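[scheduler] slot 2 assigned
[scheduler] job type: sequence-to-structure, two independent chains
[scheduler] chain ordering preserved from manifest
[runner] begin chain α
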Amino acid sequence: MRKKLLITIFLFIIIGISMCLYIYKGHRDIESETADYVVTVNELEREFTSNDSLAYIKYQDKTIELTARVTSIDKASNGIVMSEKVFVAFKNRLPQNIISGKSLKIKGRFLGYDELLQEFKIDQSSVVH
């Protein structure tokens, strides 16, 4: 009887630890991941215009690489706007070498499309050299 009780407790502990490890996974390191998609702003627009449901399934929470012109820099929110249609939030702090009007290649996690502001959202971004 005591042996069965110990085995049962041990199994519950193993199952509990396994569930915690499954539910509370570690944070992703987007900077070290390879990009799932290399896209342009026009491609994103075209796909979301033609079928936004499929585009969300394709891009949501995926690592994308995007090259576009920097149209504004927002130091307060640690982000930039690219091609007037993509808001990019950086993982740490805003890189110093970003210049408004210049082309920039970034890699980050695609969050979605904000219909109110009519812009795409990318976070955890870093500059690709």
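[runner] end chain α
[runner] begin chain β
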Amino acid sequence: MSHLLREHAPITQEGWNRLDSEARERVLPALAARKLVDFGGPHGWAHSATNLGRTDGVSDAPQGIEGNVRRVLPLVEARAPFAVARSELADADRGAEDVDLDELDTAAVRIATAENAAVFHGWSAAGITGIAEASTQDAIPLGEDCERYPRHVAMAVDALRAAGIEGPYGMALGPEAHTNVLETSQHGGYPLLEHLREILGGPLVWAPGVQGAVVLSVGGGHFLFESGQDLSIGYESHDAQSVQLYLEESFSFRVATPEAAVALTP
């Protein structure tokens, strides 16, 4: 039996297939961090910590013995609860296409946003230092003038090259900045989005949870995301009207190369 306890839910296999499909459809576009950093795993729910490859000395070891304790980074568990009406699940089993899964959609975006925020801005209570706060590069104000975005991104790329950080480079754009980019064409009608991609030489992604933007190397080895339990739907409880469910994951994140990213502040 899985810790997700799906076997106890009053949901048919067809119903679970529908829920899983809806969750994937909603959550995948919002998982910006995974498109830009190294992804390891998933290693399963029992995987509890990431090996950091370092030790701390033990001062009170037995006489004649040297002791060291290995350093690890615990995985954090993130859960976003939601509910589905049992009547909607029954309609889904009958073949209805317009099933009300709004709470699932909201939970999917919420947990993806939290993951992005942890990776890029940190989650101190969970022991996670984010890319923007770990960066040793000077932050660049993004500003509100979209016409100047290419200059700011080029400055960030030049700073990374000057630090010996190879490309290709990617960019996580917060929702407001991403909307501005999509709505802007430069002189001659050339889309700003394409111009930024040419400067970066790599992906530019919509990143809910990111404040401003972050330019970083996507060459590998700089930013390390480790998944224990990948995003999955679990069962909590039910009554006559609804089923209480949740989206859950466990993960750790660490920055191996602080100079490999530049924050573009709002």
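[runner] end chain β
[qc] chain β: The mean pLDDT is 94.
[scheduler] slot 2 released
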